[in-house]
Design brief:
alpha/beta, 4-stranded parallel β-sheet, 35% helix, 3-stranded mixed β-sheet, globular
Length: 171
């Protein structure tokens, strides 16, 4: 592993660089989002900054940047409310790309990713108070199946997400 420091505007983060792995630095304007490493079949690691005009756009650009992976292997994504992070944070354990939307309307950024890719299913996080049934209907009208992972509160939603993680690993 190679250690290096990547400097953000006023933030330093240290992470490993490995040969044969592309490291994506995901950053929205004025908010640090994270680092994702994806194995590739090239000899040297590279760094690509993915930054959108807002968090919705950054999430969509991340999905678009790994389109071949998304269309070939996973074919399922997570849809989380972009106004509130706990459900999305818990969903990181699903190991799937996370798109963000508003509560009452499917974001244009999420709609673009869903229509431009061969996505089969969408995990919708939270109950109707987090993401409305109207948004679920919009996703289904795009020809994508939906599975709502929800509970009576954030903790119960988190447990529903972990139940899905367990189901994914037993199948």
């Amino acid at each position: 592993h190679w250690r290096d420091v990547y400097k953000y505007d006023s933030y330093e983060d240290t992470f490993s660089f490995r040969p044969g792995v592309n490291t994506y630095v995901i950053k929205g304007i004025n908010d640090y989002t994270g680092v994702v490493s994806i194995p590739i079949t090239v000899r040297y690691a590279g760094i690509t900054r993915i930054a959108g005009k807002n968090r919705y756009d950054t999430a969509a650009q991340l999905c678009s940047s790994v389109k071949n992976y998304l269309n070939r292997y996973d074919r399922k994504v997570v849809l989380a409310c972009g106004d509130n992070y706990p459900d999305a944070l818990a969903a990181s354990s699903l190991g799937r790309f996370i798109l963000l939307t508003t509560k009452d309307r499917l974001s244009e950024e999420a709609r673009t990713v869903l229509t431009a890719n061969d996505i089969e299913g969408v995990f919708v996080l939270g109950d109707d108070d987090a993401i409305s049934d109207t948004v679920v209907q919009e996703v289904e009208e795009l020809g994508r199946s939906t599975t709502r992972l929800a509970g009576k509160d954030r903790i119960a939603t988190c447990l529903a997400i972990f139940d899905q993680v367990q189901a994914d690993h037993t199948n």
